[in-house]
Amino acid sequence: AWDWIYAMQPAYMSVICLLGVIGNSCVLCVFCLQKRRSSVADIYLSNLAAADLLMVSCLPFWVETVVNKFHWRFGEAMCQLINTVIGMNYYCSVLFLTLVSVDRYLALTRPLTQGRERRAWWARGICLVIWIAGVLLSFPAVLFRSVQFVPDLGVDACHLEYPHEGWRLRYNMTVSTVGFLIPVPIMSFCSYHITRVLQSSRKLRKGNRGSAERKAAFLVLVVLAAFILCWLPYQVLIFLDTLDHFEVFPGCTWAYVLDIGDQLATYLGYSNSSLNPFLYVIVGKHFKQQISPLTRCVLLRGLQQTHTSRVPDMSLIIWTK
């Protein structure tokens, strides 16, 4: 099984990284270049894209590490930093997804409250709190991550070792509670009520606005499904690891299965960061109108650069100006 992981996992992570960097960078460019004032949804989605971009940007370090059979070559400081960033952005991504669901729920079911609850400055403050919370929740990576020689692998690995098993249990409970058990019911509640409002409102069934709102609600459901699909296996592994802590599963077989499963489930969860730009960011009201000119501009520039590469160097200098 480990030979299969060494062979397949680097390619899988590389695809996730490439798609995630392209998708989330494109999203951030759209939000940064837009001329209109950012809405609450724009603020949440841009922070979501930033969190996902940071997440996938850390994956090349683990690609190289898996290729070298978990030998860590980047030093202890990078071992702590990379895993802190990954942990931080796991929490931030989940919470920003929750905020987007809540925002869609408020926009559709309680539009008269937008003047207070949905102000941009309020949204920015909430985002700041989430970033700080993400740093604090991921701080165990700084405390307990170090580069250690692992005899079973015969390499110096970036290893997470808790001072006692109580820390491991607290970590598992925090990941499950903050990263799954709280956000999923909230997103499910919002999605359920959005769907009910759309089904019962005659006004929203007619005209372009009704079509747009139904599409936004559908995207909320799709993203919720994608989030559960990507992260549920990891949460199951966390639960099984907690049971293993209490020696529910005797013998070494379960420990081996959990190690393999943890590798597969973790990177399946990471793929959610590359899916988010394609599944969710369209909820931004003017995203399509803004992404189309940006795409045409990039393609046109690429064609012009291809054409000018055939002429003398002076034309290349003029073009770059």
UniProtKB/TrEMBL annotation:
Record's subcellular location: Cell membrane
GO BP: calcium-mediated signaling; cell chemotaxis; immune response; inflammatory response; positive regulation of cytosolic calcium ion concentration; response to mechanical stimulus
Matches recorded under InterPro entries: Brdyknn_1_rcpt, Brdyknn_rcpt, CCR1-9-like, GPCR_Rhodpsn, GPCR_Rhodpsn_7TM
Molecular function (Gene Ontology), one example: C-C chemokine binding
Keyword Disulfide bond assigned: yes
A GO term from the CC aspect: external side of plasma membrane
Domain of life according to the entry: Eukaryota
Domain G-protein coupled receptors family 1 profile: 23-280
Membrane-spanning ranges: 12-33, 45-62, 82-100, 121-144, 173-195, 216-234
Membrane topology: Multi-pass membrane protein
Major location category of this protein: membrane
Keywords: Cell membrane, Disulfide bond, G-protein coupled receptor, Glycoprotein, Membrane, Receptor, Transducer, Transmembrane, Transmembrane helix
Role noted for this protein: This is a receptor for bradykinin. Could be a factor in chronic pain and inflammation.
Family: Belongs to the G-protein coupled receptor 1 family.
Protein name: B1 bradykinin receptor
Natural source organism: Gasterosteus aculeatus (Three-spined stickleback)
Gene name as annotated: BDKRB2
